[in-house]
Amino acid sequence: MAASSRGGPATGLVAGSARPSVCQASDQEVPADFETLVRYDLPLVGIVGNNSSMNQIRYGQKALYGEERERVGNTLGDVHYDKFAQMLGGHGEEARDPADIGPALRRARESGKPSLINVWVDPDAYAPGTMNQTMYK
Prior knowledge:
Blueprint: E1 2-4, H1 9-15, E2 21-26, H2 34-39, E3 44-50, H3 55-65, H4 81-87, E4 91-95, H5 101-111, E5 115-120, H6 128-131
Parallel strand pairs: 1-2, 2-3, 3-5, 4-5
């Protein structure tokens, strides 16, 4: 199995259709080419960390302008990427509890289809890399 944190469809292409591959993406960078994955039957499993927010930008705005302006232009809607995958002919599931992720990944791999697992995450939790960016200090 190939794995990538930013591979998108290219991960599936590089790995080849005989090997499943996994890609992790945020809700602002879901593979736009999911239809291509379905069309070519590439067994990519995409894991979307969905917090309905552009938290890296939000963190910087909060640091520079305060809480009253932290959500200007960086809040996304609650997009159900799992339904997006299903609509295009792939496999899609959502996970709201960490215990649901493993079983969802197994079902995605067993489906044999390009898949997206929509993992809902806390919009108020920031990644360590975001909090340690020196441009905001």
